[in-house]
Amino acid sequence: MTEAAPTRATWPIGRGLRLPGLALAAMSVVLFPLHAEDLPQLTVPVRVHLLHSEQEAAVNTTLTEADVARIFGRVNKIWAPAGIRFEVESTGVTHMPGGGGALPKERLLKNGLNVSYVKNFAENGFWSGQFAIVKDTAWLKKVPGGLDEPIPRVTAHELGHALGLEHRQDVTNLMASGTTGFSLNESEIKTAREHAAKFAAAAAER
Ligand SMILES: [Zn+2]
Which of 50, 29, 51 is CA-nearest to residue 38? Predict the structure, then answer.
């Protein structure tokens, strides 16, 4: 799938500037709807699973609930420019019967997102379509202006997939694979907000 070009470049910015003050103010809301201060906050519930397996020691994350709180503090800073906040609904140990494969269905949060932490995994992280897996030993290629800690960045990246985003292989952005970058462009913010709004609405109905 190809990425849409940044919409701002094609917007008639110059025309807007010739309009008188009030009209300009009204136009600017239409033309630049994606600045964080203009965006109503969307809160997406997330259940965090600390994976544990009796059979497979490589599964067993050593992260704690305090680590998760700190990680999501940083995830929410990354996502703040999109007006999206991830609220940890609960953090608990999820046992993996057999040591691998899918999370037990009855443990998954419905109408919200699920993030699981694991000690070792083939990739830094993965979005399965139902839940995210993040390796607590994740390693990223450093890029200028990137985040200094891999786990929050990988978590924020996988949540990006969960909110409908594809990869964008540019070294400074969140949806690039395997780097510390964390910026979002306007079309990504728009797409992520459309997905986040569904979870936010479902959470409000609970
Ligand atoms: Zn990815």
Answer: 29
